[in-house]
Amino acid sequence: MSAKPLILVTNDDGISSKGIRSLVEVARFFGDVLVLAPDKPQSGMGHAITVNHPLRLDKSILFEGLNAYTCTGTPVDCVKLAIYEVLNRKPDLLLSGINHGENTSTNILYSGTMSAAVEGAMENIPSIGFSLADFHADADFRATQLVAQELIANALKGDYPEHVCLNVNVPKGTPEELKGIKVCKQAYGFWEDRFDKRLDQFNKPYYWLTGEFTDHDKSEDSDLYAMRQGYASVVPTQFDMTCYKTMNFFKTWEK
Amino acid sequence: MSAKPLILVTNDDGISSKGIRSLVEVARFFGDVLVLAPDKPQSGMGHAITVNHPLRLDKSILFEGLNAYTCTGTPVDCVKLAIYEVLNRKPDLLLSGINHGENTSTNILYSGTMSAAVEGAMENIPSIGFSLADFHADADFRATQLVAQELIANALKGDYPEHVCLNVNVPKGTPEELKGIKVCKQAYGFWEDRFDKRLDQFNKPYYWLTGEFTDHDKSEDSDLYAMRQGYASVVPTQFDMTCYKTMNFFKTWEK
After folding, report:
1. Which residues of A touch B185 (CB under 8 A)?
2. Per residue in A116-156, pLDDT tens?
3. Which helix (H) or strand (E) holds A194?
4. Among A112, A177, A243, B128, who pairs with A45 as Cys (CB 3.0-4.6 Å)?
5. Residue range B71-92: average pLDDT?
């Protein structure tokens, strides 16, 4: 048995994206890598799991010299399949991404990349989701690779806290342009959605989800603020969604 | 224009389920109801949104005398379509459910029912997700209807706090068996997953996600505890996932 750490790598853009390839390049310096990623893009899948259909799991030849699989499910399905079917143990580290496009602020809730990392936190595995603020298929991931190298080294030191994962976002640009790494809180921001309504060949309407993201956060310790200043943002992320500050208000509704 | 409150009702089991029908029966006493729900079961979809496909939106005849639509998307898509395409305004109240099956503890992350309510909270609409601990298609929703009646009346009083929704779970049983309503925190519990591996007609494997849920929470103020005592649990729920207690630890990783 190897003494190297076992590192699970997944993503939501699918196994053939440049983002996961860039992350695996870094991860393999640190340990034995298992890649298990969706066979197609799964952006916006959030914490979805596949309960009404069965899943397929297939070997992938895309990562030479590595153990790699694709599955037909979501990023969270990938994490569950890796732990409970392929490895039959928990990896020492879970990495997700690098996402093509940023996942700052409340976008964490829609993000398949980050939901895989949150699932890792639920399994008590040190977990990091990486996103680059660039949607291009051939984006420059070098700055994110440097950030990943730094954070992976820290995460493997052995003192990583329990049941927490990291939401890491990196601004578009070269490694030289990156100002540094800042630990932040999730910014308070929302989508002002709209739908692009079009007509099909039978004159029946269909709708594309679109919109503008609005930052409602005035504070200087948010991930959006750090990103605007040219820093990579790191948000420690947990999964207790209880709103403790309104508990007393709602207690008056008890029966 | 009506002075009645405008109430949006959605779910994740699909528009033809008994759960949403039971919730609409209660909601229509309180205001003008718009139903916009998925055209098929969307359990386990979490906070997924549809970004890589267009959506269809169709009138439904299932709710006599009401404005009702189905869409091809997820519960969160339904909320967005209702606000930004059908209503062109925010409803005064958003109700989701009644889910066939409970959504206590960390199941909130996987739940389409609750993700619709969380989306409502992000839109700053008073929002409540209801779930009954009974998977039956013909489950007895009367106890949950009573709880809904109580909570909807409170939510419409005008002093509902900002950016918070409620995760309401009701134990299986008759209205007489229900002990009351308790405001709780989200219990600390997890799935011990496993996959049921089967072989298809070509001897190729496929996998069904299954598992056991384990309650790791010893406290008496959790939703799981309240449910086990025979109470309906109400967890005030927010969407800032920042892990504030580990911020100082991770600050040492800054560069």
Report:
1. 240, 242, 244, 247
2. 999 999 999 999 999 999 999 999 999 999 999 999 999 99
3. strand A189-199
4. A112
5. 96
Amino acid at A178: L
Which token pair is A28?
């393999």
Torsions phi, psi for B17 (to 5 deg): -80, 155
Residue A192 carries which side chain, given as an amino acid letter? E
CB A205 within 8 A of CB B57: yes
Residue ranges covered by each domain of chain A: 6-186+220-251
Is B205 in contact with A83 (Cβ distance < 8 A)?
no
CA distance B221 to B217: 9
Please identify which residue in the block is written with the tokens 């890796």: A82
- pLDDT (0 to 100) of residue A1: 45
Does B56 sit within 8 Å of A43, measured CB to CB?
A: no
Nearest to B41 among A52, A193, A207 (CB): A52
Question: Which has the minimum average pLDDT: A42-51, A243-252, B118-127, B230-239?
Answer: A42-51
CATH match for B6-186+219-251 among 3.30.565.10, 3.30.70.380, 3.40.1210.10, 3.30.2270.10: 3.40.1210.10
CB contacts, 8 Å: B126 with chain A: none
- Taking only the tens place, the pLDDT of each residue in B132-144 is 999 999 999 999 9
Q: Name the superfamily (CATH) of residues A6-186+220-251.
A: Survival protein SurE-like phosphatase/nucleotidase (3.40.1210.10)
Structure tokens at A82: 């890796």
A183–B243 CB contact, under 8 Å: no
3-class DSSP assignment, residue A109 = helix
**Which of B85, B161, B198 is opposite residue A207, by nearest beta carbon?**
B85
The verdict on ipTM greater than 0.85 is yes
The answer to whether residue B2 scores a pLDDT higher than 90 is no
In this structure, the number of other CB atoms found within 10 A of the CB of residue B142 comes to 16
Pick from A243, A245, A249, A254 the residue to mutate for testing the B interface (most B CBs within 10 Å).
Answer: A243
Contacts of B242 (CB under 8 A, 6+ apart): A185, A186, A235, A236, A237, A238
Q: What pTM was computed for the model?
A: 0.96
Task: List the single residue in B84, B207, B251 with the smallest CB-CB distance to A183.
Answer: B251
| Cβ neighbours of residue B2 closer than 8 Å, sequence gap 6 or more | B32
Interface test with A, best of B47, B57, B105 (most A CBs within 10 A): B47
The shortest C-alpha distance from A181 to chain B (Å) reads: 5
